[in-house]
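Hi there, hope your week has been kind to you so far. Thanks so much in advance, here it is:
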Amino acid sequence: MKWMCFLLSAMTLTGCATAGNPNGYGSGFSCGGKTKCGQMTSCAEAQYYLQQCGLRRLDRDGDGVPCESMCR
């Protein structure tokens, strides 16, 4: 999980939320309101919703990569 946090931080130039920080303080994202890939504005946001908010529907094939068309 730490390498994913580092990767997301590097991609978005922001801090990375932790499991103890589900509201995304420092990440620019927060849980709630979005439920579909079409609503995400970036791969980093989709990854946040998958990892921090538990929105598993974003990763249909279960490979850990959300919104495949956006996060290639």
User: Anything to note?
Assistant: The helical segments are 2-12, 43-51.
